[in-house]
Amino acid sequence: MTTINIQNLVRKNILELKPYISFRDNSQFENPLLMDANESPFGEFNRYPDSTHRNLREKISAFKNISANQIAIGNGSDELIDLIIKIFCKPKKDSVLVTNPSFAMYGFYASINENEVLQLNLNDNFEIVKEEFLNIIKENQPKILFLCSPNNPTGNSIDDIEFYIQNFDGIVVVDEAYIEFSEQKSCIELINEYPNLIVLQTFSKAWGLAGARVGTAFSIEEIINLIYTVKSPYNVNVLSQNLVLEKLNQVENFQNNLNDILKERDWLKNQLEDLECISKVFPTDANFFLIEFKNAERVYSTFIECEILTSKRFPQIPNCIRINVGSKKENEKLINILKNI
Ligand code: PMP
């Protein structure tokens, strides 16, 4: 167990903050009149959602075998990233460390909170160079380290991730948005060993609920309570909470869809590797491929002409386009277009 005092890492104003009491504890009543929240007595969705996400956290708790008190639910994991930065980073004082390239929202939210964003450049295989990591944290003492594994947009997982957690005195956020597609172990099992660790997961990717906006944070209870202190009262709506509860009752369906995506990923990989216009297909543990093209501009504009949207917003990795695995029909269409380039 690492000896890190979380209280010393939290912004003082946040420690002093009293949460806005927005939950209705009616568990001791049988059939109470609900006249406390200025809601309408009419309509199907007239009641506010449960701000503490009790049922959902209990369901996830049973599914993951982790205490419900160690789970926080956000309006997508995006919201959780924003809240974590606000809890720990003093504006204009603290900095965050991100790998480069990685998911852009860490830097985006840090910039909004006026925190410097330090970049740890990945090597040509998109790996972290340990020595560079140790140097940059020694020199700058960033407050939060964001590790994305599998990493967006590169697709690879971080090797020896515990090394970075062990060697960092601030908060380590391991973003596992794509973990279900990977054979790597989740870091969730480390949260009781490292009190400064927060693991993020989401229902947007493998669970197929991007439209519902539900993300999950796993950590020690103290950090989870801080998230519940600073979050907006009704951050996850009734429909979304119910949708996730339903999904968690149909795990077989989730497994089948996941297996289909993994099969399609294999098929796509084989097809892509044979194509003339491609110089490299990077290995992936996620549901997307980062692909280096001989002429990425031409490929990208051909995609646009064919009404296929892909992502090439990565100035650090020129000539690369990120393409996610679609349905069989979509993947076949993509490959046919690429064959004619
Ligand atoms: N983390 C990573 C690495 C992502 O790629 C994404 C979505 N693109 C998110 C977090 C945000 O996910 P959510 O839909 O849960 O906000």
Automatic annotation (TrEMBL):
Its cofactor is pyridoxal 5'-phosphate. Pathway: Lipid metabolism; Amino-acid biosynthesis; L-histidine biosynthesis; L-histidine from 5-phospho-alpha-D-ribose 1-diphosphate: step 7/9. Residues 40-336 form the Aminotransferase class I/classII large domain. Its EC number is 2.6.1.9. InterPro entries: Aminotrans_II_pyridoxalP_BS, Aminotransferase_I/II_large, HisP_aminotrans, PyrdxlP-dep_Trfase, PyrdxlP-dep_Trfase_major, PyrdxlP-dep_Trfase_small. Belongs to the class-II pyridoxal-phosphate-dependent aminotransferase family. Histidinol-phosphate aminotransferase subfamily. This is Histidinol-phosphate aminotransferase. It comes from Chryseobacterium kimseyorum. The gene is hisC.
